[in-house]
Design brief:
single chain, 505 residues, Rossmann fold, 3 domains, five-stranded parallel β-sheet
């Protein structure tokens, strides 16, 4: 069994545990730092200890997958809050050079985010002043970018002048200074890739958009990639919390000496051209990057393909899963779910690994797809499924799962992960989360951003409701789904931490 060392983006299950569960019952052992070393949301972990841990544990490893934001700042949220100097951060980044010197045959994959710029006012994951000034900071940068390009209209120019008068410049300056430091680290990270310290790199675009501070950073990063002549070993596309899964799959494919071929199938004609919420480019472009980054290639032939990736897309603009009950004609007449599920069944009978990229909605999975899969008794025969958070989060979860399934076949660990995805992505994200925020929290004096602890009364209600969902929706003639553990990471409602088991009936 080969050892792969993972330095995750943070301590949440999507970053810390998904890759470990995907590796279960394969030829690979995942080693990750202890959770106590990673910190908790805005509380940074022991960043110096993390660097030493990586050096110590890589000694007998086949490869490492490193979230550079953890190596530098101790995680994704601390990367937006720190006051570290470039000198300090470059010393921390130097751990990767030590890895290459000490272990020249080690496979090193890494990723380093472009700092996001949310369009709303909230300090939950941003500096404290973002609670009052977040939207103004975003709009100020957004309109400035459009003005620089000469495409801002008169109303935007007036809004810019108004914001300039009211926005405290000390907050703007603080925000820009941190972005500049983080960008310098993006550049240093790419230079290490050019020097072959890093074998393959991704610069994910967290909550990206066509204009604004994040967009201008993306342009600068793209220019650096071109100048360094590393286009084929440093990708940049939308994503964040799924990238460890993608690089883990790429490492396995590299070790196995395979390049899985993937056939794409969309449920709507406009699916490839849709620009999903929180992203900056058409879905069809991002999907191909996701496949390439995970070590695969898109194939035009189902016969030649190892994996069929069915992309469940809306027939018009993508809406939030929380608005499922108010979905329009774009989710019925403008797409063909039945044909997609029939195609899935046919491909499975041909021995293909069939993956469902459930990107019909943002921030949740599609109950209509679940119903059709259950009717065809395909729930536990798929090679992969995901429908959580952003489109790229989902794709970077189900594509690696499908690749691992194609290599190692049907396993209990695989079925467990399928059951987890259905419960979390559809049961929680689409239904239970909003129901509890609406029905339970007001009477308890709580909000979705702050509840009564990771394992308090709210978490108990979540588990009860999700098990009811599983009993009703995920029971087929052979298997059922059982929740072993449930809690609320970061003491809020946005995500849920689940351990799920598929059990024979």
């Amino acid at each position: 069994m080969k050892k792969i060392v993972i330095m995750p983006l943070d301590e949440r299950p999507c970053n810390y545990q998904f890759n470990q569960w995907l590796a279960d019952d394969t030829d690979y052992e995942i080693v990750a730092p202890p959770l106590s070393m990673l910190g908790n949301k805005k509380e940074p972990g022991d960043v110096e200890a993390l660097g030493q841990w990586l050096l110590d544990n890589a000694r007998d490893a086949y490869g490492v997958v490193v979230a550079v934001d953890t190596l530098l700042y101790s995680g994704i949220i601390p990367s937006r809050l720190h006051y570290d100097s470039e000198e300090t951060l470059k010393a921390r980044l130097g751990v990767l050079k030590k890895l290459r010197i000490n272990y020249p045959d080690l496979v090193i994959y890494a990723y380093n985010l472009i700092m996001r710029n949310p369009r709303y006012s909230s300090s939950e994951e941003e500096p404290d002043y973002y609670e009052d000034w977040g939207r103004d900071i975003h709009r100020y940068g957004y309109i400035r970018h459009r003005m620089d390009l000469g495409v801002a209209d008169e109303s935007e120019k007036k809004e810019y002048a108004t914001i300039e008068k009211r926005l405290p410049m000390k907050y703007w300056d603080d925000y820009l200074k941190r972005r500049d430091v983080n960008f310098a680290m993006n550049k240093a990270f790419l230079e290490m890739t050019e020097e072959d310290v890093i074998d393959f790199a991704i610069v994910p675009q967290d909550d990206s958009s066509p204009y604004g501070l994040t967009a201008t950073d993306q342009i600068r990063v793209r220019d650096i990639i071109a100048e360094l002549d590393i286009d084929h070993k440093a990708y940049m596309y939308p994503g964040a919390d799924e990238v460890t899964n993608t690089l883990f799959a790429r490492m396995i494919n590299h070790d196995q000496g395979v390049t899985p071929k993937i056939k794409l199938h969309y449920t709507s004609d406009i699916g490839p051209t849709l620009i999903p919420p929180y992203e900056d480019r058409p879905l069809g472009t991002t999907v191909r990057y996701q496949v390439l980054a995970a070590g695969g290639m898109v194939s035009d032939s189902l016969k030649e393909a190892d994996i069929l990736l069915i992309l469940n897309t809306p027939g018009e603009a993508m809406i939030e899963a929380s608005n499922y009950e108010n979905r329009g004609i774009g989710y019925s007449a403008f797409r063909n779910l039945i044909e997609a599920v029939e195609t899935a069944e046919m491909a499975i009978t041909q021995g293909k690994s069939v993956v469902m990229g459930d990107v019909a909605y943002a921030n949740g999975g599609d109950p209509d797809l679940l119903r059709l899969l259950r009717q065809k008794k395909l729930l536990y025969t798929l090679g992969g499924y995901a429908g959580w958070n952003t489109s790229s989060n989902s794709l970077g979860t189900c594509i690696p799962q499908g690749m691992i399934h194609a290599l190692f076949g049907d396993r209990k660990a695989h079925r467990d992960f399928l059951a987890l995805r259905y419960i979390e992505d559809i049961g929680y994200c689409t239904f239970v989360r909003q129901a509890i925020i609406r029905e339970e929290l007001p009477g308890r004096g709580l909000s979705g951003r702050k509840i009564d602890g990771p394992r308090g009364g709210v978490a108990k209600v979540v588990r009860t409701r999700l098990q009811h969902f599983a009993d009703k929706e995920l029971t087929d003639p052979v298997y059922a789904a059982r929740i072993i553990d449930s809690y609320q990471p970061w003491d809020r409602m946005f995500e849920v931490g689940l351990t799920v088991e598929s059990v024979k009936r």
